[in-house]
Recover the amino acids of this structure.
């Protein structure tokens, strides 16, 4: 029993064992998507993310970043930031020039979709690691850390070739990678600091119940919706009394537009066994005051209030009036 609160903490604060543990994001990455319809037509998309929160967009017409937050540039000066934008713009341009040559050399078929993720992450001890991953046509192509490039098995001879270019410093992407790897840790720390109040906020979830489509006859699908919470770690279970129901199913965590999260937790149960079931929600913003919603309780607290408190008050009022009149 003593262990229970600690297990709970581990669920609520993964990766940290004290209550002060930083709960916001710990990584920054840029996603680049280049789509080639044929050897003359390419379209670029870009975005910048703190874990799964978007802080930068990319205007492919002007080749500039679109800050999504007032603090999206961290403590980088406009000049420093413009320099990074320029490097990105140039690398996209060069890649779109080189790809057709590469495509004909390795017999790639159009349309060709290239996805790249480059970023850095702060680990538990405080050290920051950088990473780079590239995929072509939805298949892993290569990955790189500071000084090594690893071709993915799916990338075949093409990936080996490109890795060799990177390692010998001849590839275009090498300059971008170097620039990015050199700047990413400072950018990550400064943007985490600049956006601190928003990144470390606590927003309470709202929860409500509904019934889903009946799985098969004689059974019910109970749905517990939990929405609008931040940060992401949350614990939601269907319970019977204090007993967790092991058949509880969780949806993926889905983002709301305002940087909060939504989760749907369902229980497939025999229609005759719904009595006594409740949905229980634990979240750091609730400070231990779990949300508990009981299934099919027609008598709400409000009704109890109306049925007991209001008549009592009326009775007391009458008593007081009667007393005053007697005097
Ligand atoms: C290349 O693709 C674009 C967009 O789909 C199209 O408009 C253009 O005509 C194509 N060009 C060639 C040479 O096939």
């Amino acid at each position: 029993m003593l262990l229970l609160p600690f297990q709970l903490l581990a669920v609520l604060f993964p990766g940290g064992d004290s209550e002060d543990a930083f709960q916001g994001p710990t990584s920054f990455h840029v996603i680049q998507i280049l789509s080639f319809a044929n050897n003359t037509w390419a379209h670029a998309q870009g975005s910048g993310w703190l874990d799964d929160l978007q802080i930068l967009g990319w205007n492919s017409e002007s080749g500039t970043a679109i800050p999504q937050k007032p603090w999206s540039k961290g403590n980088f000066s406009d000049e420093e930031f413009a320099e990074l934008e320029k490097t990105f713009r140039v690398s996209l341009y060069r890649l779109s020039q080189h790809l057709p040559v590469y495509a004909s050399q390795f017999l790639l078929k159009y349309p060709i979709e290239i996805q790249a993720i480059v970023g850095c992450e702060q680990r538990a001890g405080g050290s920051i690691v950088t990473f780079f991953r590239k995929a072509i046509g939805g298949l892993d192509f290569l990955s790189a850390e500071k000084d090594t490039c690893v071709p993915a098995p799916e990338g075949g001879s093409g990936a080996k070739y490109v890795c060799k270019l990177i390692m010998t410093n001849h590839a275009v992407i090498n300059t971008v990678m170097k620039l990015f790897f050199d700047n990413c840790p400072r950018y990550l720390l400064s943007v985490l600091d600049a956006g601190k109040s928003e990144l470390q906020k606590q927003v309470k979830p709202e929860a409500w119940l509904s019934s889903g489509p009946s799985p098969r006859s004689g059974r019910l699908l109970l749905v517990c919706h939990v929405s609008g919470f931040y940060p992401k770690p949350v614990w939601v279970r269907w319970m019977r009394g204090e007993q967790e129901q092991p058949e509880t199913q969780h949806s993926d965590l889905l983002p709301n537009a305002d940087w909060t999260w939504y989760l749907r937790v369902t229980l497939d149960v025999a229609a005759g066994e719904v009595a006594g079931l409740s949905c229980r929600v634990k979240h750091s913003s609730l400070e231990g005051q779990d949300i508990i919603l009981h299934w099919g309780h027609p008598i709400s607290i409000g009704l109890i209030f109306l049925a007991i408190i209001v008549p009592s008050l009326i009775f007391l009022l009458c008593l007081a009036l009667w007393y005053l009149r007697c005097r």
